[in-house]
Design goal:
- The chain has helices at 4-24, 26-29, 60-69, 71-82, 99-146; strands spanning 33-41, 47-55, 91-96.
- By secondary structure, the chain is an alpha+beta fold.
- It has two domains: 4-96, K homology (KH) domain (GMP Synthetase, Chain A, domain 3), CATH 3.30.300; 99-127.
- The protein has a three-stranded mixed beta sheet with strand order 1-2-3.
- Helix 1 (4-24) packs across helix 4.
- The longest helix has 48 residues, at 99-146.
- The radius of gyration is 29 Å and the shape is elongated.
- The model has no long low-confidence stretch (mean pLDDT 84).
Length: 147
Amino acid sequence: MDSRRQLKVASLIKEAFTEILTRDGKKIYGKAFVTVSNVNITSDLLLARFNLSIYNTEDADAVVQKFNEHKFELKRALSEKLRHHIRRIPEIEFYKDETMEYVFHMEDLFKRIKQEDETLKQQLETAKPKTLKSKSTTSRSKKTNTK
């Protein structure tokens, strides 16, 4: 679990980095739509891991690679923005956030389960009248035999 200080520093870095992306981000990632979904800071505050949500592009991994290529410039911009708030600017790493892909995958699974459930219900409904008729006719025949 992250400490309060880690959470505060992560929030501060995320806010500053988001401003940098809105101002200078198009130079790096082009037409893609990139947002910072999460920032994780190590306990010694020397490494910041950015999770980037990337949309409107064919190859999200290439966009992450571009961020890694421009890591030095981004860290410099971040240090200019945060120099009065943090003593030491952490090293930065970029990762593709796969949360939305996971959400879409789970939704797809739930839809499949629902469809399978509906088909099973329909199969049971079509099979029920046949079994009820056969049971009712056998019970009538038993009643007549016992009298």
